[in-house]
Write a structure and sequence with these properties.
Structural class: alpha/beta
Number of strands: 11
Strand content: 5-15%
Mean pLDDT: 92
Radius of gyration: 19 Å
CATH topology: TIM Barrel
Order of helices and strands: EHEEEHHEHEHEHEHHEHHEHEHH
Low-confidence stretches: 322-327
Strand order of the largest sheet: 1-5-6-7-8-9-10-11
Largest sheet: 8 strands, parallel
CATH architecture: Alpha-Beta Barrel
Helix content: 40-55%
Number of helices: 13
């Protein structure tokens, strides 16, 4: 069974709830029946026509690419960290109910992630509890920038500990409302560099904040082959200022998984050296990139046995039993 660990779906019911709002996030309906999602001043979510396709259409694409299961994450729909915790929680509950319905409709093919109002840890804990224990969502997606607030403090430690207790993984994801955002004329500098820095900074903050020492069972999935972290880990490792009990490399190899949603062949090989081949999982970042394209990226740049291992690696706690079928590996013709 091949799992795509980073795909995105924006339910229309949730977008309808954002229509007519004066504050961000807000939605404007387009003349052709689509949506424009405004996340910040001058920042509209691209690819809305693909993001809002029905889950069944996502699954058609998955079948054509030989993908068995999609992990659907909220991505920028989780950017409600600038709102009051109550407003954010109410909006996220609409989203989570749509995700739960998708899981029930496709129990063997869809696993969905919750977003949390991390601006208020008590609200985040309540949303987490309902999303996982009542609605059955399979993990948590964390917007890495957190509106410029620390990701790790006395309050949020309790949230990370509870995620670990529930036995579900935490996925990092960059956001548009980033404090590293570049000027719009060089937007690809933010998308290409800023977002990779953003998630790497979040991963390092989790380590240096002692999260894994407080919650040793926490599993984190770092997208895009770990962002920039594998490239600078050697420089960071010897520096002072961390509350972690172990060296940086210890946490990368025991607490993190990284996904393949990238496009630089040497980065793929570096991630294997840094994290271990057993810590890489397949992901495409669909619908921003075709699933078949990312499968070819993996298969064209790695030995066949390594590609097969990546396809069969599993993030603990993400997929509900039953027993898995034999992996559906071949793509090349």
């Amino acid at each position: 069974m091949i799992v795509d660990h980073q795909t995105h779906w924006y339910p229309r019911t949730y977008l309808d709830a954002l229509a007519g709002r004066s504050r961000f996030p807000r939605v404007e309906r387009t003349a052709d029946g689509g949506y424009t999602l405004w996340l910040d001043e001058g920042s509209a979510q691209p690819a809305m026509d693909r993001l809002t396709k029905d889950v069944d259409e996502h699954l058609v694409q998955a079948t054509e690419a030989g993908i068995d299961t999609l992990v659907l994450g909220p991505a920028t729909l989780g950017e409600v960290l600038h709102l009051s915790a109550l407003e954010a929680a109410d909006l996220l509950d609409i989203l989570h109910q749509e995700y739960a319905a998708a899981q029930r409709a496709h129990p063997d093919r869809v696993a969905c992630l919750a977003a949390l109002p991390m601006q208020e840890p008590s609200a985040a804990l309540a949303v987490l509890e309902r999303a996982v224990t009542e609605l059955g969502l399979r993990g948590v997606s964390l917007v890495a920038h957190n509106e410029g607030r620390p990701l790790v403090d006395d309050g949020t430690l309790a949230v990370f500990a509870r995620i670990a207790e529930l036995g579900v993984p935490l996925f990092l994801h960059p956001g548009f409302r980033s404090t590293t955002r570049a000027h719009t004329r060089v937007r690809r500098a933010e998308n290409g560099l800023g977002w990779m820095f953003q998630t790497a900074l979040a991963a390092l903050e989790l380590i240096d904040g002692g999260v894994f020492d407080v919650a040793p069972g926490l599993v984190v999935v770092h997208p895009h082959l770990g962002g920039v972290l594998p490239y600078v880990a050697g420089r960071i490792s010897g520096l002072a200022g961390s509350a972690a009990k172990h060296p940086l490399e210890h946490y990368l190899r025991t607490c993190f998984y990284v996904d393949t949603a990238a496009a630089t062949p040497p980065a793929l090989r570096l991630a294997i050296e840094m994290y271990g081949a057993d810590r890489l999982v397949f992901a495409s970042d669909y619908p921003f990139l075709p699933m078949t394209e990312l499968r070819r990226y993996v298969e064209d740049n790695l030995p066949a046995e390594t590609a097969t291992q990546i396809y069969t690696n599993r993030v603990p706690g993400l997929l509900a039993p039953p027993a898995e079928a034999e992996p559906n590996i071949p793509l090349r013709k």
